[in-house]
Amino acid sequence: MADMNITTPKRKGVQSLRKKQSTKVDLTPMVDLGFLLITFFIFTATLSEANVLKLFLPAGEKKDTKVAASNALSIILDQNNEIYYYEGAMQPKGENIIKTNFKNISSLLQSKKQQRNDELMVIIQSTDQASFKNVVDILDEMSIHQIKRYALVDLDNEVKNILRP
Amino acid sequence: MPKVKMPRKSTFVDMTAMTDVAFLLLSFFILTTKFKSPEVIEVETPSSVSTKAIEAKNVVLITIGSDGKVYFNVSEENTGEKERIIDFVNEQKQLNLSDAQKAAFKRAGGIIGVPFTQLGSYLNLSAEQVSSFKEFPGIPVDSTNNELTMWVRGAVEAFKGQTMNLMVKGDNKAKYPSFQGVIKALKENDQLKFQLITSPEGVPEGTDLWRSNMAGVKNEEQ
After folding, report:
1. Fewest C-beta in 10 Å: which of A17, A156, B47, B70?
2. Could you report the per-residue pLDDT of A74-108, keeping only the tens digit for each?
3. Is B19 on the interface with A (CB under 8 A)?
4. CATH topology of domain A69-163
5. What does the domain layout of chain B look like in residue ranges?
6. Residue A6: closest CA among chain B residues belongs to which residue?
7. B8 and A6 in contact by Cβ < 8 A?
8. The overall pTM is greater than 0.90
9. CB-CB under 8 Å, B178 with A143
């Protein structure tokens, strides 16, 4: 309770016939309840929030943007969160395709970004076994490293033949 | 020596002010809370560092389930647009839908997850049957038969002159071909800008975005 009993013992004989009842209501439980509900609403409010990641697609075949091979970095998303990548143009038998994972691709993108700055163009391809999470994760890496130029394109047939002979 | 009499003070704390504050905050949180609308399809979205809040108006939502099935729906408030979409699709595909079936499309909580061949019988279901209907075949999005293209075209026609918020909500486990099919359907309709619904995540330290956030640079996304 919000108070303590400190009533002084009354002198004998002067005892009043009726004790005066206090009109004070103890509001402590009400405050408890109030704060309990507040915590509940705070938690539900933050949990339901979702946000959006904007995505712009390259405008079809009409505007085929040419990229200098030296600035291009192709990333291929594959099953089980595996990533393959190659720089510039692919060599005929795919000798320059390197296998990596999400942890390493982040540092690779960071160093590439520092070397080439805004000239860097990342081309993202996915095999049919890649998951939607992989796609969003790699797009997320683009925004983390502030890479302005990237494109989500269909899987190149030559690459497909090398990865799935 | 006479004893010094200390006046006894009551220890009663007046809780009224505290109650006032507690309930003021409570009413504020009740009013600002938006509860999640019940979802027909359970989707676990991937996370991203994006901080852009989700738009609530004029939403055209394409959902990709964990099994790769694709669903289409339009926000509840846009009944006029929903009517135009179903009219457009009905006309284009010659589905001969009745007025009752069209009304079923406008009904709250309606989500489309069936091919055109089954659309008529799906719309014949009552609201209760729909909510317990779990075995959606999904809208076909493969390269030979991409029916989502028609739905998106209907939405583009219906939202002409307004800003349409095209959103894609995909499950973590959904495979790429479904997403590719969705992209194709959007590209066919020249809808090159869209938004992916994600859950928030912290920015890793030491990266470019983290540094610019620290420097207080407003992240401008074109």
Report:
1. A17
2. 888 888 888 888 887 777 777 778 888 878 888 88
3. yes
4. Nucleotidyltransferase; domain 5 (3.30.420)
5. 47-200
6. B10
7. yes
8. no
9. no
